[in-house]
């Protein structure tokens, strides 16, 4: 299996410090405050997927997490918005 974001040598995954440097440089270049860091992006990604109706198992796979209990941390953030959501079927375009 190959890493999604390999290191320069291509022998393994990118080091977290490298990813953090890339994130910081991109935020700095875009004029975005550095609060939250790279973990904030990961957290937002998971929360938005959950709010869009993606199941925890798939989110966990996308984040390369080993257990559903790890992925379920994102439930508390999306719970309030999930209570008012409509069925995914209602988001489909009607057939005409």
UniProtKB/TrEMBL annotation:
GO biological process, one term: DNA recombination
Keyword Acyltransferase: no
UniProt GO molecular function: DNA binding
InterPro entries: DNA_brk_join_enz (IPR011010), Integrase-like_cat_sf (IPR013762), Integrase_catalytic (IPR002104)
Residues of the signal peptide: none
Tree of life domain: Bacteria
Keywords from the named record: DNA recombination
KW Oxidoreductase (keyword) present: no
Limits of the Tyr recombinase domain: 1-87
This protein's name: Tyrosine recombinase XerD
Organism: Candidatus Accumulibacter vicinus
């Amino acid at each position: 299996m190959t890493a999604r974001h390999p290191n320069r040598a291509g022998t393994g995954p990118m080091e977290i410090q490298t990813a953090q440097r890339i994130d910081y440089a991109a935020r700095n270049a875009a004029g975005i405050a550095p609060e939250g860091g790279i973990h904030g992006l990961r957290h937002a990604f998971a929360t938005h997927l959950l709010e869009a109706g993606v199941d925890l198992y798939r989110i966990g796979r996308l984040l390369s997490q080993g257990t559903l209990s790890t992925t379920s941390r994102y439930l508390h953030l999306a719970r309030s918005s999930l209570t008012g959501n409509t069925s995914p079927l209602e988001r489909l375009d009607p057939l005409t």
